[in-house]
Amino acid sequence: MHLDFVPVWTVILGVGVFMYVLLDGFDLGVGILFPFAADEDARSLMMNSVAPIWDGNETWLILGGMGLLAAFPVAFAIVIPAVYFPILLMLLGLMFRGVAFEFRSRDPAHRPWWNRAFFGGSLVATFSQGVVLGMFVQGFTVTGRAFTGTSFDWLAPFPLVTGAGLVAGYVLLGSAWLVMKTEGALQTWARRCATLALVAMLAFIAVVSIWTPLLHEEIAARWFTWPNLAWFAFVPVLTALIAWAIWRSLRSSSDYVPFVGAMGLFAMSYLGLGISVFPYIVPYRLTLWDAAAVPSAQAFLLIGTLFLLPIIFMYLGWAYYVFRGKVSADVGYH
To answer: What pTM value is reported for the model?
Structure first.
């Protein structure tokens, strides 16, 4: 009798991807907002707010990619060729913004160029992640257990719309982060940005929520047949309540509710995605069990993963604890 490690790996990958979206999402959002700040002092404060923790956030991206390869190799072999170019663009964007972090402070003569690199890298990385998400929901061209589409299947309306939607979502996370971490004029500006981003994100959520069931009958049946309609009604209801709480908090003196609420919106969107596609890991061809590695390989890899996960959580928790509170202009990158 073999133990079933697929549920364990599903939880690990699900948590890893969600943590990446939340944690790297807000610092990518700060990067997208970067060129629209009032002046260089404001931009320096924005960079200081994410400088101590941005690279640690990307730990979850590595965990997600390597976990997919190790635990679900068939899915990795299908998904990666299908989204090769968006992933390439995402990695290039992350590289550009990482270099900009270092050189903006050390090369003042070319600071405008590094500002553009920070913005462009953040925008390209975010849009590319949204395209990958859109391709995942749209589905892949698969014959047997192999991808048989082209590397340009992502150039389709639905993935491009989800790419734009993720940009709006990350801007909401980034601006809510700035509301929490800054004061004065920069915080006031961030509240305005968060309000606009909230409206844009809700619009994209509505469009994608209507469009997704039209793409696949399986998704429509999952959401709109009885008793599922009653079981899953809490998702849109909670989404609306969270959006209302964010809206109210942005018009009050609350510094923390906008960011917590933005994370809540992403949690509801992530949960909705999971409800739509479960149990598929290659929608709508292969289930998690169809694409899984052999149990012995999953068990071997699980030993190291369960050892590393607490270390990652402790390291990130300590980093966020040490750098808690409002950001100041005299600490970090300048």
So the answer is: 0.91
